[in-house]
Amino acid sequence: MVKRILLLFTIIFFLSSSLFVYPQDNPYLLDKELLEAIQNEVSGERAWDMVSKISRFHRIRGGGEGSDYNRCVEYLANELKKMGLEEVIIKRYTADGFKKYFLWNSLVGWRVKEAELWLVEPYKKLLARYSDQAVSLMPYSRGGEVESEVIYVGGGKSDANYKNIDVKGKLVFATGGGGSQVHRQAVLKRGACGVIVGPSDRENRLPYPDLIEVSRLSPTGEEREKTGFGFALSRRQEKELVSLFKAGEKVTMRARVDAELFDGEMAVLEAKITGSEHPSQEIIIMGHLDHYKPGANDNASGSAGMVEMVRNILALVSRGEIPPPRRTLRFLWLPEIHGAAAYLTEHQDLKDKGIAGLNLDMIGEDYALCQANFNLTCSPYSVPGYINDVLINLLGWLDGGVFYSPRGSRYRFNFRINPYSGGSDHIMFNDSAFSIPTPMLGHGDVFHHSSLDTPDKCDPTEMKRIISLSLAAALLLANADDEDAVKIAGELYSQAILRIVERTQKSIRLLQQYVYDSEKSKHLAELYFNIINYPHVQAGIESTNLREVTELCDKQASRKIIDELAKDIYRQVASEKEKIKLIYDLLTRQYNLKKEEFRPTDLYKKASSLKPQRLFQGPLPWNYLREKLDEESNKWYAENRQKAGGAYGSKTYEIVNLMDGKRTLLDIRHIVSCEFDETDIEFVLHFAEDLQKIGLVKF
Predict the structure, then answer these.
(1) Residue 579 pLDDT greater than 70, yes or no
(2) What is the 3-state secondary structure (H, E, C) of 674-688?
(3) 32-105+265-479 with 112-261: one CATH topology?
(4) 92 forms bridges with which residues in the sheet?
(5) Cβ neighbours of residue 484 closer than 8 Å, sequence gap 6 or more
(6) Which residues have CB under 8 Å from 389's CB, separation 6+?
(7) How far is CA 646 from CA 505, 620, 650, 676, 687, in A?
(8) 3-state DSSP assignment of residue 373
(9) What whole-number distance in Å separates Cα of residue 444 and Cα of residue 423?
(10) Domain 112-261: which CATH class?
(11) Cβ-count burial of 196 within 10 angstroms (0-12 exposed, 13-18 middle, 19+ buried)?
(12) Do 292 and 59 touch, CB atoms closer than 8 A?
């Protein structure tokens, strides 16, 4: 009986979904002529050539005067000016390890000329040379020269690895990656001169024995004088050294590092095309320019893609194929995350100007070589906007022969649409202090942060696709009029209804999982208490997103249409609640489970009474909470991490972002559970109270 009803529900769902699919010649938000103009103008070949040029620079953040990073910034600035772009500025921000931007410590300045690591005993052999492979020297290594016995410390990342071992004044060898952690244990805590570290045990990298993983030391300002140096080795080299230690050989090495730490700077390249009618409304296109040499896909690809976009816009405008943008387009080449924090510290006005952002990070992967696919990582629920659905609407356009590039692949377009996650500059722009909805466009990549992230792994065909996608979305928003706004709203409305229904499907699957599991079934009443709220929560998110489209309107009539659509979304709530209730009743009856009304515990009562207000700008740095809390408090997180459910980092980001002084902690718990998966109320409450304890939140 239950299976028949579930089957009926599935059929009804697919029938209702089909009502929102409209057969038409052009299902996209841009007209055919403009899409064809973009297809013809964007060059994956030209973008690939720019990738190969950028990847010749060792682009380490905080480099300062005379560094490869600064030379690369100046090179790109000159290229943009040659195209005829007038508004090109290089902004410079202090990077001395002491200066803070929001809660984020600045990096330190670093310059390097050369470095070598030699095996001296039991035989002589060159192991690493910076000018051969820049990633072999860990960024932010301080200069020095030493010949010393090498002490093998296993993984080298915990106190246990150093028990009864004296490493002071010596070189330390460790396996399993994590150069920064090894350096902290061996050099900063125990006085070693430097560290030599092999790669991590990532399974998909095992077939590449000569791959060298990037490790960086990241010292603070206070640690600059204590900092040593570090070399990264390949798996083949790691095995060779381990075999020597296992054979009982005495191992001696000589290291020479010509590098310095100093009061540096983070350079941000800013280029603008000012809007002709609404200059105070901005679309912000960003990508991090920094990273090791070569760093082709990460992120010479995104940086080159932005250069190509500027070239495309100027060319299309000059030929009269598009009008000058009505809204401002701001392009930012950033030192990743830290540079974005510094830039936003200065440009607080962007919270009022920015209507949408695009973060281009790793946009050119060859699917086969890199074991990759394209990922559209959506902006979070906490930041209302419409850019996600604009991009989603255009994805189907990319799956066509017109996007093949002469030197590129012939693969079909392969993509995923993912919920919000962090790890790049969009975390700063999505922060609720600025609330600029900013998805990330990129790929996973087996060669990410390694010596094998070379231009040959970058595909001109994929570059053409993702640049075209970014350009189409940017131009649509830059030139949108009332007609475009209503079309965008219609797209959002259709997708919103589907997402509300999909959220109900997830809730029904949860009910089934709890019913089938004898342990989970004890908490069935609590689950039902939570999920019965999700249709209204999801509708609220979708309705708010829809209302944001009115910022593109000039006419009151268009705003009225969009407002009515936003209100109408709530009509879906009652039917979705009925579906959840129906399945709950059927399942409890079928499995002879007692239907109990959930009585909110003290945790729920407390969470429903507290309305947290965040007191800081910018996202929490990764280790900030751990550094501020005592050992006992940190132990709680280690023992109770499962209470957060999945997507731990994304959830903590969202919990903070949603702390507006209006929502209760129970409201916040429901939103993050809707967005990701079930979240224990105890975790949300404990996390909020810890933030209050260290002065970041008030109730």
Answers:
(1) yes
(2) HHCCCCCHHHHHHHH
(3) no
(4) 267
(5) 29, 476, 552
(6) 488, 491, 492, 495, 545
(7) 19, 19, 9, 7, 15
(8) coil
(9) 12
(10) alpha beta
(11) buried
(12) yes
Q: Provide the pairing of β-strand 87-95 with 264-273.
A: antiparallel
Regarding pTM above 0.85, the answer is: yes
Domain spans of the chain? Answer: 1-24+481-599, 32-105+265-479, 112-261, 600-699
Name the architecture of domain 1-24+481-599.
Orthogonal Bundle (1.10)
Instruction: For residue 676, give both structure tokens.
Output: 């990701």
Instruction: Give the whole-angstrom CA distance, residue 168 versus residue 165.
Output: 9
Q: Which residues lie closer than 8 Å to 576 by C-beta, 6 or more apart?
A: 500, 501, 503, 504, 535
d(CA 434, CA 643): 29
Strand 194-197 versus strand 171-174 pairing type: parallel
Per CATH, which fold does 32-105+265-479 belong to?
Aminopeptidase (3.40.630)
Q: Is 586 helix (H, G, I), strand (E, B) or coil?
A: helix
Q: What's the pLDDT at 24?
A: 56
Q: For residues 587 and 508, what is the distance between their CA atoms, to the nearest angstrom?
A: 10
Token look-up 């809007």 returns 275
Give me 154's structure tokens.
């296993």
Q: Structure tokens of 272?
A: 């603008």
Q: Which two tokens stand for residue 504?
A: 């109900």
Q: Give the per-residue pLDDT at 14.
A: 36
Return the closest-CA partner of residue 651 out of 669, 637, 667: 669
Distance CA(475)–CA(275), nearest Å, equals 11
Q: Let me know how long the chain is.
A: 699
Integer Cα distance of 458 and 339 in angstroms: 25
- The C-alpha atoms of residue 286 and residue 425 are separated, in whole angstroms, by 8
- Tell me whether residue 442 is exposed, middle or buried, using C-beta atoms within 10 angstroms of its C-beta: 0 to 12, 13 to 18, 19 or more: buried
**Given the structure tokens 């998966």, which residue do they identify?**
677
Instruction: DSSP letter for 177, please.
Output: S
423 token code pair: 């790890």
Q: Which residue has the tokens 């999982």?
A: 513
The alpha carbon dihedral of 240, 245, 247, 252 has a sign of positive
pLDDT for 66 equals: 83
Backbone conformation region of residue 109, classed left if phi is above 0, alpha if psi is from -120 to 50, else beta:
beta
pLDDT band at 4 (very low <50, low <70, confident <90, very high): very low
Of 625, 643, 642, which Cα lies nearest the Cα of 685? 643
pLDDT (tens digit, 9 = 90+) per residue, 284-321?
999 999 999 999 999 999 999 999 999 999 999 999 99
CA distances from 355 to 329, 380, 562, 596 (A): 11, 14, 17, 46
Distances, alpha carbon 29 to alpha carbons 161, 321, 326, 499, in Å = 58, 17, 17, 19
Q: Please, what's the b/e burial string for 165-186 (b: 16 or more CB within 10 A of its CB; e: otherwise)?
A: eebeebbbbbbbbbbbbbbbbb
pLDDT at position 21 is: 42
Instruction: Please give the Cα distance from 329 to 317 (Å, whole number).
Output: 14
Q: How far apart are CA 142 and CA 602, in angstroms?
A: 54
* Token pair recorded at residue 629: 């809390």
